[in-house]
Design goal:
Blueprint: H1 2-33, H2 39-76, E1 81-83, E2 88-90, H3 97-100, E3 103-104, E4 107-110, H4 115-118, E5 124-127, H5 153-165, E6 170-177, H6 184-204, E7 215-222, H7 239-254, E8 262-266, H8 269-280, H9 286-294, H10 308-318, H11 347-358
Parallel strand pairs: 6-7, 7-8
Antiparallel strand pairs: 1-2, 3-4, 4-5
Helix pairs in contact: 5-6, 6-7, 7-8, 9-10
Amino acid sequence: MYHQTFIIMTAIVYFTVKAVCAVYILCHLWTFIFHRHMYGIWDLILRLMRIARVRVWRYRRQRKEEAERRARRKARRRKPETDKSKGKTETAVPSSSSDDDDVIGKTKVIYLEDPKVARMTPTRSEPMEKIPLEEDEDIGSDDVEQENKGLTEEVILKGASEAFHGGWNRVKLYFMLGLPTETVEDMEGIALLSEKIAELYYDEIPKEQRNGKVQVVASSSFFVPKPFTPFQWAKMCTKEEFLERAYLVKDKFKEMLNRKSLKYNYHEADLTVLEGILARGDRRVAPVLEEAYHKGAMFDSWGEYFNNDIWMKAFETCGVDMDFYTVRERSLDEVFPWDFIDAGVTKEFLKREWLAAVSEKVTPNCRQQCSGCGARQYGGGVCFEDKN
């Protein structure tokens, strides 16, 4: 009996010691792996993983292209095809790799048996693969012209119509919310314009010629004032105001008749506010960056690693008022932290452009009329195009 008890106690002590040692080793390993001095190594590992992923993608794409080329060559080796309309026979023969790349206009050409004659007279062509066509638009409606894009609703609809008649059925639109002087009508115009494009597809393209259902994807980012732009004096919306605008547009999309063909996306409001602070911040923001780093802010460009709470605690710890850099509208005589940098464009010109933007006036293109921005000091570019 005593001997059995001794054996049991020995086993318990043995396994207890092993468990304690294992926990001790795991704790030290955990501390070593997630120590901030290891961030550089993890960054390197993630970069190598991304490089490997890109190379694998390229390798698969090359394999796919080679398979397509082999399929085309195999099709050319098939028995001759009879042209019933002309009573002639065309023979597809193997060609060199350079033949696969021969292009006339926008068609891939299959030649006759005699390559010398065939290079002069193509007999049959295959349509090139369609390339995605996008419309890039950063304004909400015709009334919002602060960014001098010069695009109107008529121009956008005309471009969409040409794309639909060319065989495309997917349109991407890019907008910006939170611009100065923005109205509810401008925001709702995002959904209305998307609806008009969808209606254009169903009205102009016959049902038998449609390549499936039309897809109109509208995405909106939030306005962030930047240095060396006319909007460096502008105030920025809060997170709640950004989301309020996004929800208004989203609700308007739900009212559209073709809502199943429409999709709406918007940028993260938390990240936009942080971008606004970093864009126009001064030296007082530097301790916040260091504090956020020490608290674990790393790889914030990837959404799965971004933690807004870390940044909020860092601003609170350093005593920095976020609203001072975002929601405050600057006066025209305020001295900015970046004023000592000469970017070529004068500050007086930016002031005039800011007042014009608030008044919703469009500045002519530099090629049409010189606005005296100060860029002539470089001695080249658009200012001297007509003189060269």
